[in-house]
Amino acid sequence: MRLEGRVALVAGGAGSMGSAVAQLFAAEGAAVCVADMDKERADEVVGEIVEDGGRAIAAALDVCQAEQWEQVVVSAEKAFGHLDLMANLSGSNYRVSFDEQSEDMWRKIIDVNLTACFIGIKAVVPAMRRAGRGVMLHVGSLASIHQGAGSPAYGVSKIGLVALTRSAAASYAQDNIRCVLVSPGHVDTNFLRGDSAHSPNSWETSIENPDNYERRRASTPLGRLCLPEDIAKTFLFAASDEAAMITGSMLTVDGGAGI
Ligand SMILES: NC(=O)c1ccc[n+]([C@@H]2O[C@H](COP(=O)([O-])OP(=O)(O)OC[C@H]3O[C@@H](n4cnc5c(N)ncnc54)[C@H](O)[C@@H]3O)[C@@H](O)[C@H]2O)c1
């Protein structure tokens, strides 16, 4: 029970990694507010947590909307008394070349992956100050380490999170609030496999295509793609008191893919 007494807001909590984080946080004693624009799936995640004996509520949240963040913080404090943990695992990408990336795509990716983290921090900090402590966790990527060709906005957003994490860590350390970036490598999730509005994939890009799967596996020295549970365990560590002196850092969980 490494998160006993904590109250967590998990944004993007209906997603593959977000739901794994919400479930592990709840299993370790936290009360969890599962927030996502996919409210139906967030409700299902809450159902699974409650069935396993945990405490959770679901909330509709578009992470790009500051007022919605504020409402979700109010709901979490009302339901569970305080808020002292936030993990934001929402995200978006359009896997197209620099030539093909439109200004609209650029704005959407920067909005969801980077600006949403900025407004999310501003929404949760007052609640964490009231609680007297807090941990804010964001999700980076291999793109937080190096850039390749294609989807320029994705790389800019994910490397921007390195700076945002350091800026928030330096700004709020005096309030006993930590901020950590967890950067996964290739993770077998709907983000890479499915064809969703926030992360469109075709046969050319999806890991349903064995060539794409094998390319990602082969570029991972430990020999397999990460699973959402691998990432959730690192979020748990970063959230817990075992990481009490870790702030402003990036923790890479990539099987060596970023070496
Ligand atoms: N899968 C990978 O290999 C991988 C690797 C590195 C980083 N990431 C990052 O991990 C994060 C989560 O990815 P995942 O693999 O769990 O994908 P996923 O598609 O399963 O989950 C993403 C979730 O974000 C939610 N979301 C998207 N836009 C939103 C918005 N505006 N407001 C609220 N919720 C919104 C979706 O509804 C979905 O539940 C993303 O930030 C992604 O960039 C993924």
Descriptive notes:
The chain has 259 residues and is an alpha/beta fold. It has a domain at 7-91 and 115-183 and 229-252: NAD(P)-binding Rossmann-like Domain (Rossmann fold), CATH 3.40.50. It is built from 8 helices and 7 strands, in the order E-H-E-H-E-H-E-H-E-H-E-H-H-H-E. The chain has a 7-stranded parallel sheet, with helices on both faces. Strand 1, helix 1 and strand 2 (31-36) form a beta-alpha-beta unit. Helix 1 (16-27) crosses helix 8 (228-239). The longest helix has 29 residues, at 103-131. The chain starts with 6 loop residues before the first strand and ends in a 6-residue tail after the last strand. The model has no long low-confidence stretch (mean pLDDT 98). The site of nicotinamide-adenine-dinucleotide has 31 residues, from helix 1, helix 4 and helix 6.
β-strand number:
7
Mean pLDDT: 98
CATH topology of the domain at 7-91 and 115-183 and 229-252: Rossmann fold
Kindly report the spatial arrangement of strands forming the biggest sheet.
3-2-1-4-5-6-7
Structural class: alpha/beta
Question: Would you identify the CATH H-level superfamily of the domain at 7-91 and 115-183 and 229-252?
Answer: NAD(P)-binding Rossmann-like Domain
Helix share bin: 40-55%
Question: Biggest sheet: strands, sense, closure?
Answer: 7 strands, parallel
Q: Which stretches are low in confidence, meaning pLDDT under 50 for 5 or more residues running?
A: none
The number of helical elements comes to: 8
The CATH class of the domain at 7-91 and 115-183 and 229-252: Alpha Beta
Strand content: 15-25%
Shape: globular
List bound small molecules.
Answer: nicotinamide-adenine-dinucleotide
Order of helices and strands: EHEHEHEHEHEHHHE
State the end-to-end distance.
Answer: 33 Å
Question: Whole-number radius of gyration?
Answer: 17 Å
